[in-house]
TrEMBL record:
InterPro entries given in the database record: Aldolase_TIM (IPR013785), NadC/ModD (IPR027277), Nicotinate_pribotase-like_C (IPR036068), Quinolinate_PRibosylTrfase_C (IPR002638)
Organism: Olea europaea subsp. europaea
Domain of life: Eukaryota
GO cellular component: cytoplasm
Pathway annotation from the record: Cofactor biosynthesis; NAD(+) biosynthesis
PANTHER family given in the database record: NICOTINATE-NUCLEOTIDE PYROPHOSPHORYLASE [CARBOXYLATING]
Keywords per UniProt: Glycosyltransferase, Transferase
Pfam families listed in its UniProt record: QRPTase_C
Protein's UniProt keywords contain Membrane: no
GO BP terms, alphabetized: NAD+ biosynthetic process; quinolinate catabolic process
Family in the record: Belongs to the NadC/ModD family.
Protein name from the UniProt record: Nicotinate-nucleotide pyrophosphorylase [carboxylating], chloroplastic isoform X1
Domain (Quinolinate phosphoribosyl transferase C-terminal): residue spans on this chain: 15-119
Length: 120
């Protein structure tokens, strides 16, 4: 999992974290609160379960998360097409509560189909 803090001057810090997403988010939110910092937090998810965990965390408490990044949630197929079903499902789960960003397997040939998934 990757967390990215971004302050109002667009300076960012990226942190790779191993372990439960909710624990990482809780630590980030607590740190920002204790230090009276206002930063946008972007979290990179790699599975639908991680997306669900972020959504559950955010439904239980106030969080600084503003964007959920959806990493490698598209699968290139042997016929040169692209399976975007996991990406679409993630976008449906998020349901506009956070900005979304797709990453991984994005090329000029795939960007249109990925964009049609509803990812913002």
């Amino acid at each position: 999992m990757t967390l990215r803090y971004q302050d109002v001057n667009n300076r960012g810090i990226t942190i790779l974290i191993a372990g439960a997403i909710s624990n990482a988010l809780k630590s980030v939110d607590l740190y920002l609160e204790q230090n009276n910092l206002k930063m946008c937090v972007e979290i990179e998810t790699r599975t639908l379960l991680e997306v669900i965990e972020v959504l559950h965390y955010a439904s239980q408490r106030k969080t600084s998360v503003t964007k959920i990044m959806l990493d490698n949630m598209v699968v290139p197929l042997s016929n040169r097409d692209l399976d975007v079903s996991m990406l679409k499902e993630a976008v449906e789960l998020i349901n506009g509560r956070f900005e979304t960003e797709a990453s991984g397997n994005i090329t000029l040939d795939t960007v249109n189909k990925i964009g049609q998934s509803g990812v913002t």
